[in-house]
Amino acid sequence: MTETGRKTLLVVDDDPDMRGYVRRAVSRLCPFVGEVREASTGHQALEMVRRGGIELLITDVQLPGLDGISLCRQLDSSTGGRPCPVLLISGESSRTSDAFEFAASGPHRAFLSKPFNAHQISTALAALEESAERR
């Protein structure tokens, strides 16, 4: 958490344009997010989360190497019962059902299918933040 009590978000996507779009949307519409960090691979994201300070995560499902669902599973097993709230995003229709099922299997997960708009990101993150605050 930042000094202002706002959360630190990690955006994971191999597309720099998508990371930039999400960063701008969150900066504009999510007052509870103070800092947005970026990773382009699942392995890079895993290392960043393990170092600490990441409180919310948005990850693409289709990533090179370690995909978004595998990333979340590894994080779940290493967080000692306090999973990081995750918004999974996917534009790959073959992975949509996997991502949706995975998101539905945990209380601190959500899913958005690409294309989405800034308000959908904001609404999904706000719901995840509210859920995390209640635990």
TrEMBL record:
Response regulatory domain mapped to chain residues: 8-129
Residue positions where 4-aspartylphosphate is found in the record: D60
A GO BP annotation: phosphorelay signal transduction system
Record has GTP-binding as a keyword: no
Lineage: superkingdom: Bacteria
InterPro entries xref list: Bact_response_regulator, CheY-like_superfamily, Sig_transdc_resp-reg_receiver
Keywords on record: Phosphoprotein
SMART domains the record matches: REC (SM00448)
Protein name, as recorded: Response regulator
Native source organism of the sequence: Eiseniibacteriota bacterium
